Amino acid sequence: MLRPRRFTDEIDPGPVQIQARKVHFDVADSPLHWIPGHPVASHVVSLLNIVLPAGERWFVETFNEALPLVKDAKLADDIRGFIGQEATHADVHDKVLHEFMIEHGVDPAPILSQVEHVFTAVLGPLDTADPVRRMNHLCERLWLIAAIEHYTAVMGDFALNCSWDDHGADPTLVDLFRWHGSEEVEHRSVAHDVAVYFNDSYLSRIRAMSVAAAMLFVFFQRAAWYLVRTDPDVTAGWWRFNRLRMRDSKLGLLPRYRTLFGSSTLAYFRPGFTPEQFGSTAQAVAYLAASPAARAAHL
């Protein structure tokens, strides 16, 4: 499928109604190395099927905690749409994890146990009767979600504009990650707006991003290496794994680290940062209207 391309003269669609969409993905015939000849890129992107369900359910839990405290009707409506989209993302990736990755012999247990521990034990609601401490902890979690959502928007924009098609990637998994990426671009301002609503603090913003950047960099390096190392069809040591990752980044199959953890992170640190600076709502909405999975769900 030809995806909607970005142009400098795109027509702004204006405010969009953020809402969950029904989708259907049949991954029964999708190969584990879904980008042919590029197992590292395939595993790095597929890792999202393991980490996203727990992370996005934590987003939903935290925003459900915040929603009753929001008096701004427009923001509350955006939060409800965000919750619906993230809950759908979690369910879809969890289904793909079991029907695609586990069916291909991937054992996600070591990664899942770490992810579940972080999002339930470490980042769960604070067990205290002190309302001030509870609110402060909620604000910290909201800023951490905003920082993580900055990365998901950047990666969503990458998915919409990368070279997967040029390398014969499996169309179902391409559609999966582009559908998800489009919704991340579509709702890229919500988490930031919510964090600002509760605690408009530049210090809290940069502190949360410092934690998120370090956490995501270390996790994705270790977890992607685990998938490559345990793949019986791939022979690659640590250094070769990273050389292949850098090669795939140059080919446009993966985001470049210097962009993901470099320029986009530095942009987030600027006092005047807004999420609209990354991604195109017009492109995202156009893809969501054309997504084969979204169209199939309504047949």
The chain-level mean pLDDT equals 92
Estimate the helix proportion, in percent.
55-70%
Write down the overall geometry: globular
| SS field, number of helical segments | 12
Low-confidence stretches: none
Order of helices and strands: HHHHHHHHHHHH
Strand count, sense and barrel status of the largest sheet are: none
- Class derived from helix and strand content: mainly alpha
Distance between the termini: 18 Å
Tally of DSSP β-strands: 0
Bin the strand percentage. under 5%
Rounded Rg: 19 Å
Descriptive report:
It is a single chain. The chain has 299 residues and is mainly alpha-helical. The protein is 65% helix and 0% strand. It is built from twelve helices and no strands. It has helices at residues 39-46, 48-66, 73-101, 109-122, 131-161, 171-186, 190-198, 202-229, 238-250, 257-269, 281-290, 292-296. Helix 3 packs across helix 7 (190-198). The longest helix is centred in the middle third of the chain and has 31 residues, at 131-161. It starts with 38 loop residues before the first helix and ends with a helix. The mean pLDDT is 92.
